[in-house]
Write a structure and sequence with these properties.
The chain is α+β, with helices and mostly antiparallel strands and 287 residues long. The protein contains ten helices and six strands; from the N terminus they run αααααααααββαββββ. Helix 1 (5-23) packs across helix 2, helix 3 (51-75) crosses helix 6 (135-142) and helix 8 (170-185) packs antiparallel against helix 9 (189-195). The protein is elongated. The relative contact order is 0.13. This is RNA polymerase sigma-70 factor (ECF subfamily). Residues 109-160 form the RNA polymerase sigma factor 70 region 4 type domain.
């Protein structure tokens, strides 16, 4: 296949979007995109009817293979597993223009929920719901009949139905997070009760590399106790910023002159329902 620089620039954002959404990893997605283009260079162009369909099929199938081979490693992972945060600014080398920019299917909450799906379910849900591929295109990509793809999508949507009410309004969510920060700093319990679900869950991902809770923290009182405990022991140079992470506002935390962690949120019906504290240094943007 004759892949030109224009083809590379045109299709790379879409392929990265598929890889990142499928795997929840920036590095793995980038590696698979490069492997896909390298394979494309070796294919006789006469055998390819549609470059886009071919490239999407290769990257999707490579992601499916990766998910199956990574299952054991994921099971051995220490503590909760959070997707790698995608900081949509130049500090981590990722330019927002380098990926498909649809908000749907990109939040940390959505990507984490994808972990509950089988690989084929993940692929169909992503291609149909987030990237708006037709059923005929999806059937070609994953090599299944259209009818089967429809059934797979229906099953996948049922399994993650609770995420459908997620708020993706960036400014509204940013305002809510500002209120959360102010209430937390001033320890205004009534305000915190208004902003956070009583059944909130915090997933703390240290990956065994740094100290973190090895089980999800459940309930408002337990989550606040953990957060208050963390903030009592921070160094003097501790500071944080609200930044664009996965197209949603998140709290980016700095300590000891370096990026320490990223706190992302699942906001539903104007309340924080889940928090994702990613501290594993392997998952944080390059400092």
């Amino acid at each position: 296949m004759q892949i030109s620089n224009e083809d590379y620039q045109q299709y790379k954002p879409l392929l990265f979007s598929i890889g990142y959404r499928m795997l929840g990893s920036i590095t793995d997605a980038e590696d698979i995109v490069q492997e896909t283009f390298l394979k494309a260079y070796q294919i006789d162009e006469k055998k390819i009817d549609n470059k886009k369909a071919y490239l999407c099929k290769v990257v999707t199938n490579r992601c499916l293979d990766h998910l199956k081979s990574a299952q054991h490693r994921r099971e051995q992972y220490i503590g909760p597993w959070n997707p790698v945060p995608l900081l949509l600014e130049s500090s981590n080398g990722i330019d927002p223009s380098e990926m498909a920019l649809q908000k749907e299917g990109l939040s940390i909450a959505y990507l984490r929920m994808m972990e509950h799906l089988a690989p084929d379910e993940r692929a169909v849900l992503l291609l149909r719901e987030a990237l708006d591929f037709s059923y005929s295109e999806i059937a070609e990509i994953i090599e299944k009949k259209e009818e089967n793809c429809r059934k797979i999508l229906s099953r996948a949507k049922q399994r993650i139905s609770q995420i459908e009410d997620e708020s993706l309004d960036y400014e509204q969510n940013k305002f809510l997070i500002h209120r959360f920060i102010q209430a937390f700093q001033m320890q205004k319990t009534d305000d915190l009760l208004e902003l956070i679900s009583e059944n909130v869950t915090l997933y703390s991902d240290g990956g065994g590399k740094v100290k973190a809770a090895v089980r999800p923290i459940v309930s408002l009182s337990n989550v606040l106790a953990l957060l208050f405990g963390i903030t009592k022991n921070v160094p003097k140079d501790f500071y944080f910023e609200i930044r664009n992470v996965n197209h949603q506002p998140a709290i980016v935390i700095f300590m000891n002159g370096a990026l320490h962690s990223i706190l992302s949120f699942y906001i539903r019906k104007d309340k924080i329902n889940e928090m994702y504290l990613t501290m594993n240094p392997d998952k944080l943007p390059i400092r």
